[in-house]
Specification:
Distance between the termini of chain A: 36 Å
CATH architecture of the largest domain in chain A: 3-Layer(aba) Sandwich
Number of strands of chain B: 0
Radius of gyration of chain B: 20 Å
Strand content of chain A: 25-35%
Strand order of the largest sheet of chain A: 11-8-12-13-7-14-15-16
Largest sheet of chain B: none
Oligomer: heterodimer
Number of helices of chain A: 8
Largest sheet of chain A: 8 strands, mixed
CATH class of the largest domain in chain A: Alpha Beta
Shape of chain B: elongated
Number of domains of chain A: 2
Order of helices and strands of chain B: HHHHH
Helix content of chain B: over 70%
CATH superfamily of the largest domain in chain A: P-loop containing nucleotide triphosphate hydrolases
Strand content of chain B: under 5%
Structural class of chain B: mainly alpha
């Protein structure tokens, strides 16, 4: 699972001690590369240049930018092992729509890790599963927890449908999940949520839908709609507090359909599990 | 008699050598033109990744172009290109091919197709010229080699 090292210039990759513990690498043109192991960032190696970034993108796309343009237009790429590469650069618009990024100046390479969440509160949620929302700021491990919940629900016999818009949940290679998402999980890859819900709910008849990073009214509407169809949902949303989510004009709608709210303190550490029905935190 | 036979062989060899040179150039550029067309179709519709597309094209084919493209496909997966070192090409032609290969896989499909069309407009005239030269000069050289060889042999007899 260290294929992501191929994305880095050799001299920089060689300077990383214990690469298996790295969770994020940031390559910035004209700046030193920084790495994180789930906490603060440390600078390593020399300054990266535009050529290094271009080479990384070339490796990530197997030198086939045209084949990855749909993802590139959303500002990211995926690589083997569920690695996600966020891209910053000049935006190229075609017919008024963002078509691509060129002259990438920054790359954020995020390396997924599987974590076993040994948490009594989470076990209670999993044992009597209802709609659940995972809330935390970026980088705290939402996707890791989501993947863990998907695996556990799937292992318990539920048919789980993972709408994996960015291939971060299943880390699929050639359509086959490489991350352990359980024996009863179906994965819709790279589909916008609206398509994933509408088509897959009809076609796959899932018990639970799992999806990452809700963003905007349309996606919230999709969740509400799926719940109306009788499907349970586990989803993640970026925020630093449940109160902020519920008081928001758009995301506040989720309050009407969500039973459990899980917040994270850091990678692999659950902060609180709030039961929306009982209006208290599970202890 | 032996000297005559040896000279015949030399002349015929030279004639076939010249013919082979033109044939190689003709086949090389014909294959590159075919490759450009395969790319245009693969990029427009299936959006097949470049290494897979190139390997599918080169597999089962023989010749210098197939060899170069197979090497290019292997290197492309790791983000690198391939150096065109075919000795039967001029420096300008080698540079043209290298620039063409270097342009592949670096753009969105629309720009990539435009780039392909641009390179096609450079490579196709070379391919046509090579075909014409092979048909005229190449085949003639082979025939002339044999004829001159026979003439020399007869003159010495």
């Amino acid at each position: 699972m260290l294929e992501w090292l191929d994305l880095l210039p050799k001299d920089i990759a060689e300077r990383i001690d214990d690469p298996s513990s790295v969770t994020e690498v940031r390559l910035r043109a004209g700046k030193r590369t920084t790495i994180s192991r789930g906490g603060s960032y440390a600078a390593i190696g020399r300054e990266a240049d535009m050529h290094d970034l271009q080479a990384a993108l070339s490796v990530a796309t197997e030198r086939s930018v045209y084949a990855a343009e749909t993802l590139l237009a959303q500002g990211f790429l995926t690589y083997k092992g569920g690695v996600r590469i966020g891209i910053c650069g000049e935006c190229v618009y075609k017919s008024g729509k963002l078509a691509a990024y060129r002259n990438a100046s920054s790359l954020c390479i995020r390396v997924p890790h599987e974590v076993d969440f040994c948490d009594r509160r989470l076990e209670r949620v999993l044992n009597a599963f209802e709609n659940t929302l995972i809330v935390s700021p970026p980088g705290a491990g939402k996707t890791t927890l989501l993947r863990y919940i998907v695996k556990r629900l799937s292992q318990s016999g539920a048919n789980v449908l993972a709408i994996d818009e960015r291939n971060e949940i299943s880390a699929s290679v050639d359509g086959i999940p490489t991350a352990d998402v359980g024996p009863n999980t179906d994965v819709v890859l790279f589909a916008a949520k609206r398509d994933g819900y509408a088509e897959a709910v009809r076609a796959m008849r899932p018990d639970v839908i799992a999806t990452d990073e809700l963003f905007g009214k349309h996606e919230v509407d999709c969740i509400v709609d799926a719940v109306r169809c009788g499907v349970k949902v586990v989803a993640t949303v970026h925020s630093d507090s449940v109160v902020k989510v519920l008081s928001d004009n758009i995301y506040g709608q989720l309050g009407a359909v969500t039973r459990y709210y899980v917040t994270l303190r850091g990678r692999g550490v659950i902060e609180t599990v709030y039961d929306g029905a009982k209006k208290n935190c599970i202890l | 008699m032996i000297v005559g036979a040896a000279l015949f062989v030399c002349c015929a060899y030279a004639g076939f050598g010249i013919s082979a040179y033109y044939r190689k150039r003709y086949l090389f550029f014909a294959a590159m033109t075919e490759y450009i067309d395969a790319l245009a179709s693969g990029i427009s519709y299936a959006k097949t990744p470049l290494p897979k597309l190139t390997r599918a094209f080169a597999d089962g084919k023989r010749g210098d172009a197939a060899q170069l493209l197979a090497k290019f496909a292997d290197n492309a997966a790791s983000g690198e290109g391939a150096k065109c070192e075919q000795k039967f090409l001029s420096a300008f032609e080698r540079k043209t091919i290298e620039e063409f290969l270097d342009s592949l896989g670096r753009y969105d499909s629309e720009t990539q197709l435009a780039e392909l069309a641009r390179h096609r407009s450079i490579i196709v005239p070379i391919a046509k010229d090579c075909e014409e030269k092979y048909r005229k000069t190449g085949k003639l050289a082979a025939k002339l080699g044999i004829l001159i060889g026979i003439a020399v042999m007869l003159a010495l007899a």
